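EI: anyone free to look at a 582-residue chain?
SC: sure, send it
EI:
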Amino acid sequence: WARRPNAEPPSPSGGHGPGSPGARCRRGIRGSSPFSGSGESTGSSPERGPEMRPETRGLKKSDIVIVDDNPDNLRILTSILGKAGHSARPVSNPKMALNAIFAKPPDLVLLDIMMPDIDGFELCGQLKSNEGTKEIPVIFISALDELEEKLRAFSMGGVDYITKPFQEAEVIARVETHLKLADAKEALQKREALKRRLKKAESLARMAGAVAHQFNNHLQAVIGNLEMTMEYLPDAAKAANNIESAMHAAQKAADVSRLMLTAAGQAYGPQEPMDLSEYCRLNIHMFQVPESIVLETDFPSPGPVVMASPSLVQQVIENLIINAVEAMANRPGIIRVAVKRHSFPEGPGSGSFPPGWEPGGRPHACLEIRDHGRGIAAPDLENIFDPFFSTHFPGRGLGLPVALGIAVAHGGGMTVESTQGAGSVLRFFIPICEAPLQADPEISRSDAFLVKDRAVLLVEEDEHVRNLISGYLDQKGYRVLEASCGAAALDLFDRVKNGIQCVLMDVAMPGMTAWETLALMRRGVPGIYVILTSGCEEAGSLAGNHTEMPQVFLRKPYKLPALLQAVENAFARQTPRSGERG
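SC: here you go
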């Protein structure tokens, strides 16, 4: 019975009161009364009350499976849930109920206990042992009122227990309470997953920066020594060829470290206002695809204008097209490349990267790459932007992380949608430009010259790099004073500062930082020309609130001619000190 408030249950003399044997609903017997039979009946129609819709309750329309072998029970519970704005799926056969739940997991299950073939306890156990259904809340609804049955229901994984005869308001209250709890649990799990992703992303970025810095320091010594060796062997053609090959390999290694920094969001380059659609239209011919694949494009004119680095945007297009081609696995098909304008009224949604990315309500330009390849398995979706993770080829896997890093460096992000066997859609977002940035005026270049009677102070922790640079500058006619840390550099500087015209200093040093060293040097000699070097990107290396800044930044590994040019410029552009004339 759907018991009305203040209503009395059927008389015990009829055998159907809550304490009567009929309330136990004996298994295997079916009578004409709605109380008897192998199932447990609620009796007559439920009382009617005001309808409660999901929008008035603040809940979504939920999918609820009702499992009961008594048709009257199914009809009454379906009516109750329908009035409350839920979608009910009544199932009278326990085996059919299992198939229905496995095929389309609901938000909640209302489960009778006394049923033929499979009772409610066994059915609940099967749901809880299945990975795809174990989190579904199960509410037992039964005429069994003994403590033993209730405890067993909870031990099997049930979240609640409703005793027949019940009241309609009680059913709705308990159902909606557990729907809210399930939603809260899901939200908590998503937040915890987001925290893990954020921590992982932070760890990867830190690792990439540290590895790239160390890697570039070693490559500086390798490449620089090879360059000098080539100068010493101008006539040894065979040796020169071998050395040139070694230099090429070392440069490729340097490119890998640069890609790692880019994947960590440390991709910096000169940015300019550009029509993303027009840029893609003019450059799409540069990207080749196999003859079996058709490259379709949709580039509206005019397109969204963004402030971006053209070379980095080109790298994004190339990486995403290569990824789409590899996903096609040599099968014929279509890859679609499109540029769109996009807004995020409700945020980027699921499948967005980096973790926690918020577009902030700004309109974005979207570069969309759609393929009809193999698709990405759901467990792999969170990993596809990890460096060196690849579902295509072992040892690959920097294409998508680099694209994401470039998006992050431009204040954007990426999203991914994928279905196995149907293909993927990758979208690259960067904010639409509101006001073009003013380009920095170019510094005029004057002819450089060598000054043999003036010194360069070299501050470098790595002994191999220090020996290399010292030997190279000495060969070019400069007197080089060496120091391995900031304290030693200041000691030298204080003793011979009038003869030092240029300081060449690495950002990462033990003890006193490069910024502290630079500030103290400028206090003694205002305007002293300083060249800072680092294995990290310029913007990241120079970030922070510093009282003094260098005139030049060189990123390791740099070419020795570039170093020479910077040092020559230091002497060619010397600002006259107090008491001196230019």
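EI: Residues 223 and 328 are 39 Å apart (CA to CA).
SC: 👍
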